[in-house]
Amino acid sequence: MVPEADRDKRPTRTSVWLEGKPAGRGRRSENSDHPAGLDRDRITAVSVRLLDAEGPAKFSMRRLAAELGVTAMSLYWYVDTKDDLLELALDSVFGEVLVPDMTDEDADWRDQLRELATSYRAVLVRHHWVSPLVGRYLNIGPHSMAFSAAVQTVMDRTGLAPHDRMGGLSAVFQFVYGFGTIEGHFVQRCADAGLSQDEYFRQAMGAINEQPRFQESFESADELMEARGGDTVAEMRQRDFTFAIELLIAGIETMRDRDRAAAAPRAEPEDGPGAEPGGRAPRRERA
């Protein structure tokens, strides 16, 4: 256990983007032991490739150095820790999110929201190691910040009241994060098993149906699956995702219209002849 006094002396790690390490160096000089052609871009690209192939559990400075053909010590010219490498790799894949042209004032925010949500989902599925890291780091790299700025701009254009925009953002992109995370892990599980998604699904459902204790619970699930439509797992999943995004967009529109109606001034009836104060019609005496 680290003594409290030592913990106080040790600075808390913030972000690789705040550490001031060089993004690249020149070619190796006679008095330098760092390899020629090595820079953060190359280190990051190989890190992403290793993470895609082997996952974060097997990722290490030593493993990366071997893949680059350099010594592990040479990596410390560019990063201080394994966390720095993971943070660089994470921001790199955020660069794969297709960000719409946010300068287009005539663009429909709904289309821009669909594009961002769809592309973010694709990144989570393509790189299954991303989702556990998103909440681990500050995500202040250039690609992460570009994605964040685009998302906030789209939310501004929805017409939601300012105090509701972060809630709208969370509803959409926390959903996409969860959907893409589950999908990404399922795709990776199928790959690890050497099966297609449809083969894995059929085998799993077949095994479940053979167990009497699960049959009753899954009867309703079978009905839902039939109503769900789609010939493949990918088609069914795409239908679910598309419907969910449209549902969220409709919810944003409903909440926006409700807030606008609540904020609109109410017209007061004018006092006419014989009207009581406040515009109410005069009461009739009973016969």
- Distance N to C terminus: 92 Å
Averaged pLDDT:
86
Alpha-carbon Rg, integer: 28 Å
Number of strands: 0
Q: Major sheet, described briefly?
A: none
The helix-and-strand class reads: mainly alpha
The parts where pLDDT drops under 50 for at least 5 residues are 25-31
- Count of helical regions: 11
Helix content: 55-70%
Beta-strand percentage range: under 5%
Describe this entry's structure for a reader.
The protein has 287 residues and is mainly alpha-helical. Helices cover 61% and strands 0% of the residues. The chain contains eleven helices and no strands. Helix 2 (40-54) crosses helix 4 (82-94) and helix 4 (82-94) crosses helix 7 (142-157).
Salient structural properties:
287 residues, mainly alpha, 11 helices, 0% strand, flat
SSE topology:
Blueprint lengths: L3 H6 L30 H15 L6 H8 L13 H13 L14 H18 L3 H5 L7 H16 L4 H32 L3 H13 L2 H17 L4 H31 L24
Question: In a few lines, what is going on in this structure?
Answer:
With 287 residues, the protein is an all-alpha fold. Helix content is 61%, strand content 0%.
